[in-house]
TrEMBL record:
Protein name from the UniProt record: Aldehyde oxidase GLOX
Localisation per UniProt entry: Secreted
Pfam families to which the protein is assigned, alphabetical: Glyoxal_oxid_N (PF07250), GO-like_E_set (PF09118)
Molecular functions per Gene Ontology: oxidoreductase activity
Annotated Galactose oxidase-like Early set domain residues: 447-550
Length: 552
């Protein structure tokens, strides 16, 4: 892998276009307290089953490469021979694209092997590492190093994984490697790059949480605890794993009710914003929302019966001496939802349905309304219903936070092949953005604008980050500075998602509307693995546009 990143700042032309785009958006979008939706592109050619924002503000998306032609050609008129594809033996179409946020434009990319239901994450130098998939892709790793022109594309590594990884989850580790956890029929984990042989470590928790004929524990929710261990949630419970010794150091109770919340009873989960980073033991909380009652998958598959999804979230303080799940009711039932922690620390629940199961053809009753969750409000008043989209985003859809604070929504393909006719939820090729209400023009005078450092900069662990920013209406209370790791999203889970609230050192007014805030950068890689983060200044819950800061 490349050792030195060379991200170039967006060209001046790109910046101007971006400015125009933003002006256009602010003029043409109706406002409302519940956020707004905008259709970005009508046909991106593929269904965005997997999605990752990179440091050049382009989003890599891909579906799978063995289910027939997509609606976008491969670059330069190339074709792939695909003898094992049941639909087309020679495929001249792309199954991965790059979406340029500033230009609202796509270009096709070339994946060779089958990326279906794979996993991934961003390495410390900004490369997208993607692992596994199906058939010829099950043991591959694929790398995509971002570029400012159109020269970059996927490269693939054979036998990069020890075993097949299909429906596994990755997490970026403090040393910059990635751990790959589980997957269908794999009750173990491994690392990329590989450690010494054998590199595969068995994990009984994964066989114990595997429900007979239903699984309910795929795409486990993996989070790096601030003590360096991994919190792993699957089905209805969790463990804390010391992956370096392969020892379970803590076992968490089952969520009250015991209903499953992992694939195909797909709920979602996030680590709530990490605060008070100087504390000896950090109070870290995980929030798991939605899912489906046990048996939902089999009832949908065998009996055409679509059971109502779960309408609860469960929240737990993972570093408590005696941790307990606390249940909260959501405004609605949700399965296959995505959870995105926004730059101001609020959590967006978006996409999915309210009955049935994950898996082909098994989801029903699309949920068009996102819900916003305010972690710091009292229980019972945390949810705020958001305005609906018009597009169902069922199985195989994604949501991705952008640096400008919008959430990019794509995908949905609950079928074995691309299927646009005669089905309940046609394969979805449209790309939309959800703008939370913090982007509305009424907050123009509250919204900070970061003036320095520039769009790309570097900070060290245990250092000071000095940010200058403007607020046209002036700052009335202390601003927050947040750091967001760009997560890899598929199957309702955003891998390595992490938001930190940085501790203040000083805060100064240095001009009429200009301010400077100094914050401490995280002191260790257990708090924040190395790599590029989006840094935001947040004034009264209104975030600035982010800047990319490399933590090393
Ligand atoms: C096609 O499938 C066969 C049998 O599973 C396998 O041996 C072969 O490597 C596959 N070919 C490609 C190009 O993936
Ligand atoms: C396509 O052609 C352009 C121009 O010749 C070249 O720069 C680019 O690398 C090519 N892309 C691929 C994927 O071959
Ligand atoms: C689409 O789904 C319908 C209904 O299940 C089916 O009859 C049709 O064959 C499918 N088309 C494709 C291209 O898979």
């Amino acid at each position: 892998m490349a050792s030195q990143a060379k991200p170039q700042i967006l060209s001046d032309i790109n910046r101007l276009l971006y400015l125009f785009l933003m002006l256009f958006l602010s003029i043409h979008v109706a406002s409302g307290a519940g956020g707004t939706w905008k259709l970005l592109l009508n046909n991106v050619g593929i269904s965005a089953m997997h999605s990752q924002l990179l440091i050049n503000d382009r989003v890599i998306m891909y579906d799978r490469s063995n289910f027939g032609p997509s609606q976008i050609s491969l670059p330069n008129g190339t074709c792939r021979n695909s003898p094992n594809d049941s639909v087309s033996k020679r495929d001249c179409t792309a199954h991965s694209i790059e979406y340029d946020v500033a230009l609202n434009r796509i270009r096709p990319l070339t994946v060779q092997s089958n990326t279906w239901c794979s996993s991934g994450g961003v390495t410390p130098d900004g490369t997208l590492l993607q692992t596994g998939g199906d058939k010829d892709g099950e043991r591959k790793a694929r790398l995509f190093y971002p570029c400012d022109d159109e020269s970059c594309d996927w490269s693939e590594i054979d036998n990069a994984l020890n075993v097949k990884r299909w429906y596994a989850s990755n997490h970026v580790l403090p040393d910059g490697r990635q751990i790959v956890v589980g997957g269908r029929d794999e009750f173990n984990f491994e690392f990329f790059p590989k450690t010494n042989a054998p590199n595969t470590y068995s994990l009984r928790f994964l066989s114990e949480t595997n429900d007979l004929d239903q699984e309910n524990n795929l795409y486990p929710n993996v989070f790096l605890n601030t003590d360096g261990n991994l919190f792993i949630f699957a089905n209805n419970r969790a463990i804390l794993l010391d992956y370096s010794k392969n020892t379970v150091v803590k076992t968490y109770p089952e969520i009250p009710g015991g209903e499953p919340r992992s694939y195909p009873s797909t709920g979602s989960a996030v680590l709530l914003p990490i605060k008070n980073l100087e504390a000896d033991v950090i109070e870290l909380e995980v929030l798991v929302c939605g899912g489906a009652p046990k048996g939902s998958y089999l009832l949908a598959l065998n009996e055409n019966t679509f059971v109502k999804a779960l309408d609860t979230c469960a929240r737990i303080k993972i570093n408590d001496a005696n941790p307990k799940w606390v249940l909260e009711k959501m405004p609605r039932r949700r399965i296959m939802g995505d959870m995105i922690v926004l730059p101001n620390g609020q959590v967006l629940l978006i996409n999915g349905g309210s009955s049935g199961s994950a898996g082909w053809e098994l989801g029903r009753e699309p949920v068009l309304n996102p819900d916003l969750y305010h972690p710091d409000k009292p229980i019972g008043s945390r949810f705020q219903v958001q305005n609906p989209s018009t597009i169902p985003r069922m199985y195989h859809s994604t949501a991705t936070l952008l640096r400008d604070g919008r959430v990019l929504v794509g995908g949905s393909n609950p079928h074995e092949f691309y299927n646009f006719t005669g089905v309940l939820f046609p394969t979805e090729l449209r790309l939309e953005a959800f703008s939370p209400s913090y982007l509305e023009s009424q907050y123009r005078n509250t919204r900070p604008r970061i003036m320095s450092p520039s769009l790309h900069s570097t900070v060290n662990y245990g250092g000071i980050l000095r940010l200058r920013f403007r607020v046209l209406g002036g700052v009335k209370s202390l601003v927050k500075v947040t750091m967001v790791f760009p997560s890899f999203t598929t199957h309702s889970f955003s891998m390595s998602q992490r938001v930190l609230v940085l501790d203040h050192v000083t805060s100064l007014r240095i001009g009429q509307w200009t301010y400077e805030v100094r914050v401490k950068t995280p002191r260790s890689a257990n708090l924040a693995p190395p790599g590029y983060y989006m840094v935001f200044v947040v004034n009264q819950d209104i975030p600035s546009e982010g800047i990319w800061v490399r933590l090393q």
